[in-house]
Design a protein that fits this description.
It contains 14 helices and 20 strands. The chain has about 525 residues and is of the alpha/beta class. The longest helix has 25 residues. Keywords: Aminopeptidase, Cytoplasm, Hydrolase, Manganese, Metal-binding, Protease.
């Protein structure tokens, strides 16, 4: 992973392959952001004019490279756009810094070191720059024969697209406790988001429920977590009808993983539940052509939960965080669950399966019921659950539903605070009637319109009474198929990890919401 350091060097004296400066859109054109004063001086105070001549406007994410002027120790200056300049006296938005740093780091792929001279007025701003740079430098190369890994005869390949090796935050204060703690948090958080991205990007023939569970076991050993894996025999004995029903059509049997961070000073427990469909064909209700190719990403919720629990452990948060990974592969076969079948869930409720492609809610239902038995202070589930949510909110926002309005509001505020776009969604009770079944307690499908809300209402049925619960439908932002932007790569994004980690931090501080 890319190294992150705090440096007392100035933008003029840092020895690196490039120095990154920020520019913004001012009332009269491009303005140079704080942190770049030494670079501007090297250009005779005309850096903004030079950049405008090259076509720069200061727009968010815009990258302009130019040869360094005399007096600078780096050969290249990279100017990255921060968007609109803040009002006089105001600081740059942390998310703008995060995105700019991500764009710059990606543009510097193949470089050994870059000095980031972006506005870092305080420790939180420095952390935003570090976090964005580490996320923007991400690359998934595990399956490339000529990538950044080893080539033939064990020789390392020379890959010009390899991630930027080191990010030095200029203007940082390496001896300041707040700066040091903030950047260490950024390193741990980015490492685990990138772990989640790796899992999401791994093809399904290399990641099934058993191997995902093995990843959790390995991390548990490394970071001192408690882990329990229920295999197909244990699931059958325990009556986990949802997980078994979804997984019975595949040769790769399902798993339920409990992975927990505990702290001796914790007085609150947060349960996180993740949908982990390692491949979703739709089952007997087969997906149409064109909808199968990215279904390795249907375990993004479980990846996010896994990463959040590990991050909590790495940060030593004084809160108990338990992750439940509901892992299965949804395949069509002679043994697969059929539309019309009735499953008896872990909670004892029976579910008529009207559509086997509405499988995520079935595995989550078992995990939610099991998590509720431990009576946590709150439960949050995360899932790439419905295409309806993508239609409603697009590809960059995730939806938030909850059985407690204050809790939903708190999570929305947290998501916005950490830079994850989200939107609170309602849970209209009148939609529940559409899931009435003539043969079972509930059906797994209801009205077509408002399908994302229907799914949330279904999940609510399996949450223990009196437990605050929220559901994050990350179907839109979990997997990005377009061109990279900001710190968001093509492929798995690690959506919701930052929200879950900040929620854990707030819970530890006694501010659950």
């Amino acid at each position: 992973m890319t190294a992150l350091t705090l440096s007392t060097s100035s933008a003029a004296t840092v020895r690196a392959d490039a120095v990154v400066v920020g520019v913004a859109k001012g009332a009269k054109g491009v303005v140079v952001a704080p942190g770049a004063e030494a670079v501007d001086k090297a250009f005779g105070g005309k850096l903004a004019g030079v950049l405008e001549t090259l076509g720069a406007s200061g727009a968010e994410g815009e990258v302009t490279k130019l040869p360094a002027a005399d007096g600078l120790k780096t050969p290249v200056v990279l100017a990255v756009g921060l968007g609109d300049a803040p009002a006089k006296g105001d600081a740059y938005d942390h998310e703008a810094l995060r995105r700019a740093a991500g764009s710059a780091a990606r543009a510097l792929a193949g470089s050994k070191k870059a000095g980031f001279a972006l506005p870092v007025e305080d420790a939180e701003a420095a952390a935003a720059v570090g976090e964005g740079a580490l996320l923007g430098a991400y690359a998934f190369t595990a399956f490339r024969s000529n990538g950044a890994g080893n080539g033939k005869n064990g020789k390392k390949n020379d890959d010009k697209s390899a991630p930027l090796a080191e990010v030095a935050i200029l203007g940082g204060k390496p001896r300041d406790k707040e700066f040091k703690a903030a950047t260490e948090r950024a390193q741990a958080l980015a490492a685990e988001i990138n772990r989640a991205r790796d899992l999401i990007n791994t093809p399904s023939n290399a990641l099934d429920p058993k191997s995902f569970a093995a990843e959790a076991q390995a991390a548990a050993k490394e970071f001192g977590l408690k882990v329990e894996v229920l295999d197909e025999k244990a699931l059958k004995k325990g009556g986990y009808g949802g997980l078994l029903g979804v997984g019975q059509g595949s040769e790769a049997p399902p798993r339920l993983v409990r992975i927990a961070h505990t702290h001796p000073k914790a007085n609150k427990t947060l349960a996180l539940v993740g949908k982990g469909i390692t491949y979703d064909s739709g089952g007997i209700s087969l997906k149409p052509a064109g909808h199968n190719e990215t279904m390795k990403c249907d375990m993004s919720g479980a990846a996010a939960v896994f990463a959040a629990v590990v991050t909590a452990a790495r940060l030593g948060l004084p809160v108990n965080v338990t992750g439940w990974l509901a892992l299965a592969e949804n395949m069509p076969s002679g043994s697969a669950t059929r539309p019309g079948d009735v499953l008896t869930m872990y909670s004892g409720k029976t579910v008529e399966v009207l559509n086997t492609d509405a499988e995520g809610r079935l595995v989550l239902a078992d995990a939610l019921a099991r998590a509720s038995e431990e009576e946590p202070d709150a439960i949050v589930d995360v899932a790439t659950l419905t295409g309806a949510m993508v239609l409603a909110l697009g590809h960059r926002h995730f939806g938030i539903m909850a059985n407690d309005e204050a809790f939903r509001t708190s999570i929305h505020e947290i998501a916005e605070e950490v830079g994850e776009q989200s939107w609170p969604m309602p849970m209209p009770e009148h939609l529940r009637k559409g899931m009435d079944s003539p043969v079972a307690d509930i059906a797994n499908m209801g009205e077509r319109m408002g399908g994302g809300l229907v799914a949330g209402l279904f999940l609510k049925e399996f949450v223990g009474e009196g437990i605050p619960w929220a559901h994050l439908d990350i179907a839109g932002p979990a997997f990005h198929e377009g061109s990279p932007w900001g710190y968001t790569p093509k492929g798995g994004t690690g959506s919701a990890v930052r929200t879950l980690v900040r929620l854990a931090e707030r819970t530890a501080a006694g501010d659950l919401g």
